[in-house]
Amino acid sequence: GSQNQQTQQEQSAEQTTVQITDANGEKAELKKNPKRVVVFDYGVADILKNLGVDAVVGLPKNGKMPEILSNYSDDKYTNVGSLKETDFEAVESLNPDLIIIGGRQAEDIDSFKEIAPTVNLAVDGQDYMNSFKTVVTDLGNLFDKQDEAKKAIDEIEAKIAKVNKTVAEKGLTASVVMANEGSISTFSAKSRYGLIYNGLGFTEVDKNIDDSTHGQQVSFEYFLENKSDYVFVVDRGAVTGKGEAASKLFDNEVMNKTEVAKNGNIVYLNSVIWYTMTGGIESTNQMIDEIADDVK
After folding, report:
1. 176/195 Cα distance (integer angstroms)
2. d(CA 125, CA 183)
3. Alpha-carbon distance 2 to 79, whole Å?
4. Residue 178 near residue 232, CB atoms below 8 Å
5. Residue 101 to residue 106: CA distance in whole angstroms
6. Per-residue model confidence as pLDDT tens digits over 110-159
7. Is the Cβ–Cβ distance between 115 and 134 less than 8 Å?
8. Torsion sign over Cα 57, 60, 64, 68
9. Across the strands, what pairs with 101?
10. What is d(CA 77, CA 23) in angstroms, rounded to the nearest whole number?
11. CA 120 to CA 40: how far, in whole Å?
12. What does 108-158 look like in DSSP terms, one character per residue?
């Protein structure tokens, strides 16, 4: 009889914990249905909102909160600092049973773990869709929202396939650029903006871009040599409030000579989403829609 008892105990333990994959590809066991969750990654906050999970007690609210997350501006969600500067006292005072962080907090993971079980669920830009599906599926399992998770993934995959088909048929090429306080950097398929290439199917014009997190700094002459059908611009200044608008920066003599400018194919992306909230359900839908509208 004792063996049978043990099996029952094992089964009930299995039902109370769930295995999830963190941002480094490592497996973590988490207790199912945590009730008090502090979320530092805006993409994850978006996923939880869209799965109908009501367990978030705190998130970073300093700085520009994306409009998609306006539901969290309510006072019942405690402010735990900014994406860059964590208010550890506020986190501790919330007595969380789970903390979910993203890439911007990764180096502080040990400090978070002293407070509560902590997992990094940042979506990996260079393998966007696989990474996104893993995070959404894992969160669906963690909070018993499997059906909602599957529905969200299916809708996004169908949408991506449609854009990808159009892009492939037209054989479109692209450059992805970030404008930041007067300088511009270009990003490769192995960067945080990899979705544009790996998911939506644009071809990289320049195969030699340095893969650093901050991209490779270029001048406007770059676009006279690297002629892409589209230039997608993320304006970091629109998020941080520093520097002039990217659209002003790009309106210059050199850039205006390029075909991409003459064709009106310099596209200013919704920077708050692309810079601070990749990996959400609603945000990913908006990212795809935004690009789909441009290539119709």
Report:
1. 11
2. 22
3. 49
4. no
5. 7
6. 999 999 999 999 998 889 999 999 999 999 999 999 999 999 999 999 99
7. no
8. negative
9. 120
10. 25
11. 9
12. GHHHHHHHS-EEE----GGGHHHHHHHHHHHHHHHTT-HHHHHHHHHHHHH
Which residues lie below 8 Å from residue 225, measured CB to CB, with a gap of 6+? none
Using DSSP's 3-state secondary structure scheme, residue 273 falls into: helix
Give CA–CA dist 87/44, Å, rounded: 19
Instruction: Give the Cβ contact number of residue 182 at 10 Å.
Output: 10
DSSP 74-103: STTSEE-B-SSSB-HHHHHHT--SEEEE-G
Cα distances (angstroms) measured from residue 44 to each of 6, 134, 198, 285: 36, 12, 21, 14
Q: 3-state class of 216 per DSSP? A: strand
Q: List all residues 6 or more positions away from 26 whose beta carbon is below 8 Å from its beta carbon.
A: none
How far apart are the C-alpha atoms of 27 and 22, rounded to whole Å? 6
- Residues in a beta bridge with 98: 37
How far from each other are the two terminal CA atoms of the chain, in whole angstroms?
67
Instruction: Determine the residue type at 85.
Output: E
User: CA–CA separation, 69 vs 50, rounded Å?
Assistant: 10
Pick the closest to residue 88 from 66, 63, 72, 110 (CA basis).
Answer: 110
Query: In terms of DSSP bridges, do strands 27-31 and 17-21 run parallel, antiparallel, or are they unpaired?
Result: antiparallel
Distance CA 252, CA 182 (A): 12
| pLDDT tens, N- to C-terminus, the chain (296 residues) | 555 566 655 555 556 999 999 998 999 999 999 999 999 999 999 999 999 999 999 999 998 788 999 999 999 999 999 998 999 999 999 999 999 999 989 999 999 999 999 999 999 888 999 999 999 999 999 999 999 999 999 999 999 999 999 999 999 999 999 999 889 999 998 888 999 999 999 999 998 888 777 789 999 999 999 999 999 999 988 888 887 889 999 999 999 999 999 999 999 999 989 988 999 999 999 999 999 999 98
